[in-house]
Amino acid sequence: MLYIVTVHYRSPRWIEIQHQYLRRHIPVAFEVWSSLEGIDASYGRYFDRVLEQQGTHAAKLNHLAMEVTHEASPEDLLMFLDGDAFTVADPMPLIEESLSRAPLLAVRRAENVQEPQPHPCFCVTTVGTWRSLPGDWTAGPTWIGAHGRPTSDVGGNLLRKLELSHTPWVQVLRSNRHDLDPLHFAVYGGVVYHHGAGFRAGELSPAHREHAPAPVPTPRLAIARPLARLYGGLRWRRWERRTSARLVRESERVYGEIAAGGEDWLRELM
User: Fold this and answer.
1) Are residues 138 and 118 in contact, defined by beta-carbon separation less than 8 angstroms?
2) Where in the chain are the domains?
3) Fewest beta carbons less than 10 Å away: which of 69, 162, 179, 251?
4) Burial of 45 (0-12, 13-18, 19+ CB in 10 A)
5) Domain 2-201 annotated CATH 3.20.20.150
6) Would you say the C-alpha torsion 198, 2, 262, 45 has a positive or negative sign?
7) What is the pLDDT of residues 212-253, one digit of tens each?
8) pTM value?
């Protein structure tokens, strides 16, 4: 049995899309478990199990996995999938080949300033492996991010658990032939689409901020330094607003094409 855990938050816009694509592309028996915080309970019909949850995204994933592992067998498969992610091809050949080499496969968003950790937009392992690690999606350990600054994100503790237990994992990388954005609107391994920030429109990532304007050089004259800081801040905020607005427009355009049906949006990426 394949158990899929996914979190939807405040907006139901991806629920039916995800439901349709999963049933179109996954050929094995599976159940989908989710939470619907801030979403009408009528959408529960699209899931096999809906749990009441509050808290962070990582905490919700950990709770869903805990409930699944309490009920499932060790050899059952456990798939994590973001609410704005879904299969665009049969994932089972990739899953079976990867699990023949390592106990876990997951997206690694190398395009996001070389993020090193597994990402829950798509991750598959066995119930037994998740129990034994034990798996944990929360952030914690840091790495160097945009502009050389330390950062952490969802999956940080899972990466550290894999390292400490000497557990190998298969990295599933971005496979777009055409990029509409440095991070979002991504296909991974040729089998899974992740819209990116599907529940937080316009949020900028390290991949975006790496291209922010460089700081204004500090003037030699002390009297000019406050003016330089003011100008630099205004320039940075203008860039941030412009980049965020562009991302929102592109996100809505792509979402509209996906919701309308057809595959032109996918051919644009692949």
Assistant:
1) no
2) 2-201
3) 179
4) exposed
5) no
6) negative
7) 767 767 766 667 566 657 655 676 688 678 878 888 899 999
8) 0.90
